[in-house]
């Protein structure tokens, strides 16, 4: 007798505990471990996905949640580049000191000579 099964195809990088969470929900995850090149590419795709989710967030809380996801992807990408998140933050601080941040809401329309 053939069982009627339903599949949901994701084909995306997920957080480390997601397969366990899926199993605890009486579902069967089908994960695979990526090689280094595929992992880096998947992280880059995940960064774009998470940034899009930040832009689509409709509440302050959901935007903060999505920003947290962006930070986690940045943390993983930093590790791929053999850096820590703290080192990335230190570079950001140096750049902010040299060039400023975005708090003054300056929008450059053009430069004339």
Query: What is the helix/strand order?
Result: HHHH
Give the low-pLDDT segments: none
- pLDDT average, as an integer? 95
Give me the number of helical elements.
4
Q: Give the amount of beta strand, in percent.
A: under 5%
Give the % helix: 55-70%
Q: Radius of gyration from the CA trace? A: 20 Å
Class from secondary-structure proportions: mainly alpha
Sheet with the most strands?
Answer: none
Question: TL;DR of this structure?
Answer:
The protein is mainly alpha-helical and 113 residues long. The protein has helices at 18-24, 36-56, 60-80, 85-99.
Describe this structure in words.
The protein is mainly alpha-helical and 113 residues long. The protein has a domain of 66 residues. The chain contains four helices and no strands. The longest helix has 21 residues. It starts with 17 loop residues before the first helix and ends in a 14-residue tail after the last helix. 2% of the residues are buried. The model has no long low-confidence stretch (mean pLDDT 95).
């Amino acid at each position: 007798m053939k069982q009627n099964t339903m599949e949901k195809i994701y084909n995306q990088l997920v957080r480390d505990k997601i397969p366990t969470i899926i199993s605890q929900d009486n579902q069967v995850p089908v994960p695979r471990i990526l090689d280094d090149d595929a992992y880096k590419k998947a992280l880059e795709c995940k960064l774009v996905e998470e940034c899009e989710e930040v832009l689509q967030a409709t509440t302050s809380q959901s935007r903060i949640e999505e920003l947290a996801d962006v930070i986690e992807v940045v943390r993983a990408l930093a590790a791929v580049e053999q850096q820590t998140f703290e080192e990335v933050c230190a570079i950001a601080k140096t750049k902010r000191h040299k060039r400023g941040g975005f708090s003054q809401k300056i929008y450059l329309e053009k430069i004339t000579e």
